[in-house]
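Whether sequence alone determines local backbone shape is best considered at the level of individual chains. The sequence in question and its structure tokens are set out directly beneath this paragraph.

===
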Amino acid sequence: MAKKNGAGTLSVQAYERIRNKMLSGEFPLGYPLSRRSLAEELGMSLIPVSEALQRLEAEGLVESKPRAGTRVRIPTAEDIRGHYVVREALESQSARMCRLLATREQKQQLRETAELVDKLSAATERTDPAHRMDAIFEFERSHMRLHTLIAQCSNCPALVEAIERSRVLINNWLLNLAADLDPLPVRWHRDLIRDVCDGDMITADESMRRHVTYRQEIMLMRFEKAESSGSLVTAFVRGPQKRAHRLSL
């Protein structure tokens, strides 16, 4: 939550802007994060930038090491596999609570958002290669909003925060690897919301588990391939010029 004082508000702004740069690929895995350079780029003092980086580090997106400085964290395959387990548990609980507690208005909002997410998913397939990663990023932002809305139906802020953090982390780690996957099923998100809103508790749980674990193994295989080939490390050396750092698999 944002603090009431100016420094606290600036630290939240710095956090969101740095996180968005990471999610969009401008700051890829392993990218060095200089507090002074970030402060100049964001037009802020060092204090809010330092607070933002501390928060990002606590959330697992950033790492600091002696003599190596601060950088966007490079996860291991074990990190990602464990994260999938935690994410499945969080999201399935969210689906069950949504099925139990969602109001009529919340269900309608979920249906409308799911329809938008499916449209954005289809749009990524029609976008020219030069702009496809931007389209994928827009899809993922709406996708994350959908899962946040599901969690909000639980009336449990701690669950909402945990799911938002979980999705940001996995998106930052794996978004680059998703550029050339086969299209998602046509009604993938609308069918999920149908099961969560109108099915029984078991249906809601099982549908969410299928949704969360879809493509899990192929993403892990791609990550392990990039990890073993060294492209996770070399990708960031080229820097953020025109997204040239995107992983090439």
In short: The domain at 77-225 is CATH 1.20.120.530 (Four Helix Bundle (Hemerythrin (Met), subunit A)). The chain has eleven helices and two strands. The first strand starts at residue 62 and ends at 65.
